[in-house]
Design goal:
171 residues, mainly alpha, Serine Threonine Protein Phosphatase 5, Tetratricopeptide repeat, 2 domains, Tetratricopeptide repeat, signal, TPR-like_helical_dom_sf
């Protein structure tokens, strides 16, 4: 085989091998992300953190792993850990929605805000929707509500006569 063909064959084999190993790495990352979500959904922070750390070894900017580690910090009352992961999420371009969600999670994790959220829920359950909406707005401090708490807010708003259009728009 001439040297030129030999070089071409080696180049093709190397390119195929690189793409196969990259595909396998992506598959491992996807499987780890699914495992991290599984353990986090079952409130097993230790197992979830182990998995998220493995994902971050593969990709230091993996959004779901950064959010997962930040959320673990919130739930374990470790605000510095949560803030560290929030900062890393906010440094990404474009800023992912998980950064906004984690920022809200951190704010809602503070005891005074948790008490305010409990009061808003209690008022909404008692049918005092206007007062509940006021407390929700105080909680969100001018930011757009996110996640399940945002859904609660927009549902409450949608039940009110004056807030139907805005509530439907938010949902």
């Amino acid at each position: 085989m001439p040297a030129r063909r030999h070089t071409l064959v080696i180049g093709l084999v190397a390119a195929i091998a690189a793409s196969v190993s990259h595909a396998q790495g992506a598959t491992v990352e996807v499987q780890l992300i699914e495992q991290g979500q599984y353990w986090q959904a079952r409130s097993n922070a230790v197992r979830a953190a182990e998995i998220w750390q493995k994902v971050l070894l593969i990709d230091a900017n993996q959004v779901q792993a950064l959010y997962g580690m930040g959320l673990i910090g919130v739930k374990q009352n470790k605000p510095q850990q949560a803030q560290t992961y929030l900062t890393r999420l906010q440094a990404l371009s474009p800023v992912p929605w998980q950064a906004v969600q984690l920022e809200q999670d951190i704010a809602l994790g503070q005891p005074q805000n948790q008490a305010l959220l409990d009061d808003a829920r209690r008022l909404a359950d008692a049918g005092e929707r206007d007062k509940a909406t006021g407390l929700f707005r105080q909680l969100f401090n001018g930011r757009l509500p996110q996640g399940t708490v945002g859904r609660e807010y927009y549902t409450n708003l949608g039940i009110q006569q004056c807030g139907l259009a805005r509530g439907a728009q938010g949902l």
